[in-house]
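Work Package 3 (structural annotation) set out to generate three-dimensional models for the target panel prioritized at the project kickoff. During this period the team completed the workflow that converts sequence records into discrete structure tokens, so that structures can be stored uniformly alongside our sequence database. As a representative example, we reproduce one entry of 215 residues exactly as it appears in the project archive.
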Amino acid sequence: MKPIFVTVEGPIGVGKTSLSQAISQELQLELLLEIVDENPFLSQFYQNISEWSFQLEMFFLCNRYKQLQDIENNYLHKGISVVADYNIFKNTIFARRTLNSRNLPKYLKIYDILTSDLPQANLIVYLTASIDTLMQRIAKRGREMEKNMDVTYMENLIADYERFMQEFQLRHPETTVLKFQCDDLDFVHKPEDRRFILDQVRNAVQTQVEKNEYS
């Protein structure tokens, strides 16, 4: 049976990692978590976006590229299904917001080269929420590097995600996207909210499995 590759996406603070962990446990999928805290440019980036954006984005791109290579070789290639708390396309969402007109074309060329043969998700779980909800959740998790998070940057990021996902669905109708508005869904603290999402994810995964059997 062909493996399933599920990715969870959405703006900072929406709960991608928590939901990915829950999906992994519920459906017995291998879990891939993105590397965030090891990025040496993150603290500087939040203090001065224009100064540190290129270094930050290149670090993330190279690390995610290596992670996805390992996932393909060690799991997907062996028929083992995976859920990740990011999709590599997020790199372009952030880069278009943070990089200047001189660095963005260079970055996108490198991105296209590196990602041309990487595994693509069969199912994307897209989480979104209002700026108030996201800022509250970011504050609650108390990461030192996020204390100086700019509200305007976050508002723009929410809009960037929404625009990108709408365009993505038009360009890739073959990829299933499940969208959840998380202002009224607290899947971390409320079991009934977590069950609501997990049931829909399970159904979508089962549909994808059946589709793979006949492809």
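The chain is about 55% helix and 10% strand.
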